[in-house]
Amino acid sequence: MSRSDHLRYVNPGVQCVQWHQPFMITEEALDPGITQVYTDLMSGGGHGNTYSMTLPDGDSGTVGEIQTRFGEGFAATLLAVRSGGDLRVSPPWDADVDAGATLYYVAGERIEAKAFASRDATSGSARGKA
SS3 for 50? Predict the structure, then answer.
């Protein structure tokens, strides 16, 4: 990986993958540029980072409603939801998410559950408040 810049000097289209992630060669071949996305997500100096948050008590909604709150309020993207031990990556927008579920997301910085809950209160959402 430390020599990737040298290889790109020869061919700018070269994408290097970690030795312990050979599956990335196939992913890169099928979806060029995907290794750059993964690298950005996995590095602390990237444009975003992955975080998790527990959906606060008294808060609920559909994946679509929660994704909208993440996007509009924090420029973040919901990746997955864990509820009752079940992990769903890229869940359907109409799937219900209850309080206590773990939300996995990408954002420029960590979002505090209190800020997320107050964003719902200021957005006028009819759901999520008991």
Answer: strand
